[in-house]
Amino acid sequence: MSLSNPNPLYLIDAIGPFFRGYERVRINWSKIPWRRFRKLSPEDRAELFGQVEEDMERFTRRAAETGFNAVSLDDVPHLALHEHYEGETNDLIHAYREAFRAIFEICNRAGMEVFLTMDVMSWAPGLREKIGSGERATNAFIADLLERFFEDFPEVAGVIIRIGESDGLDVKDDFHSDLHLKNPAMVNRFLRHVLPVFEKHNRRCVFRTWTVGAHHVGDLIWRNSTLERSIVGIESDALILSMKYGESDFFRYLSLNRNFYVTRLPKIVELQTRREYEGAGEYPSFVGWDYESIADDLKEAPNVIGIMAWCQTGGWHPFRRLTWLESSSIWTEIDTHVTLRLFKHDESVETAIQTFPGCEPGTRSAWVELLRLSHEVVTELLYVPEFARQSLYFRRVRIPPLIGVYWHNIFVSHSIKKVLKHFVDDGEAAIRSGHTCLRKIDRMRELAEECGLPVEDIDYMKHTFGLLALAREYFFRPFDEEIVDRLKKAKKAYKKRYPRKTRYRYAVKLDFKPFQISRRSLNWFLNYCLREQHTYRISDRLFFLRFLSLIYGLVKRARPKMIPKFARKSAMGIDAIFR
Length: 579
Description:
579 residues; eight-stranded parallel barrel; 18 strands
């Protein structure tokens, strides 16, 4: 088929309504919590879905008013019937289908197209035994499942396919996904197998290039040759590529993803407005100036037709503000509004801020200053700029530029101290910058009062970032007991001020025990295992991509405690990058 230039797509995730009242302490925000609905009686499930419908009415109305034209929801396997599924699984699918038809109608009524997500491949109990796990059989099953789904749900405009990340280790559900496609050739064959189904039913296939480093396709997100081999010879009016803006997850300090320039296939850019690594809306983490730069750069990229804005999805953490719903985050709403205006209307950041509802003419300059300071504090204190500016790669992964903070965890440890000492030359400048940022937060508080914005969120930011500033003194100065004592007291005061019962806060994890790896061994690893260029070295091809996974397996068995629990248990686990 010849390529056409499809209609613009301004997509936003709409899973927030499914989390209202979900009382787990730590939530997996990557998908709808299906397990929550499974445990309910039919009557209680109907009541809960009734609340979801009310919230969806409100959400889609706000999304349409902001300027979005499509929503994403989870997911195809929970809504598509198949005779290979066991009885109880099919019973649940029937219940979900009835509930989601009403939700789809609400979205369509608000003028929003509906897209459903789908992992490749999601397995139900007993399914693997029935079809096997071979490539041809799995591809055929997925194509058949999509065929049935499209016939049953004409109100769905398309499917968003994820192939480079699977369900987290904590997922307990009737469906659990794993990574089926392991190299570019398999990706190419898969797309050729399923795209005719999308074309037949006039639906759009949004294919995500996001990967977490696993297998030979693990560098699809950033390596142009991997993308080129994955899509070679494919021309389909149904296909849209979806790419994160950088070479890693939703962090700052990332250069623009080069793969936007590799192909003329239609593509959209993934952006996150509820920043999963930056407080998830608990404090202002303004993205406007970062995204303005990305929008300007993408003007030169071929056939970029829209965006996918994540206002709720992403992360494993206890922060739970639901965008445009009860207990919403004004900071996420601002990010979402400005992001859409930048990419859809080509506005400047300042103009986009001034069009936000509630930004009155008399306080516009205060709004802009407040958000500018928020941007500066996050980039200069949450991140360590001298480290974050360095482009570092390990095997097929771009190393995240954020160190010491991971979702809702603040880590202050001897191991991080050693790593930062290796990469940061001017530690005293980092300490001074941290204390300057705390003064900026004081100014932000004054501006928030002037603008009528939540002052308590600024206070929360001050106390949280105060810990980060104090941690820098430990990281960049010689060890002494006085700074250890100050950190312990600061942690105790923070927990007292923000107990879990009244506010979901960061977990501060202090570990001053000497790191088990010697300085010499650590420096060898950092100097030789990491690389600064995105292209592979000869040593990567001969050793690190081939044999390091075997060495990692031996180390994991011999000294498992060397690998932090959060790295072993969170998301897919660190094992994924060694596959």
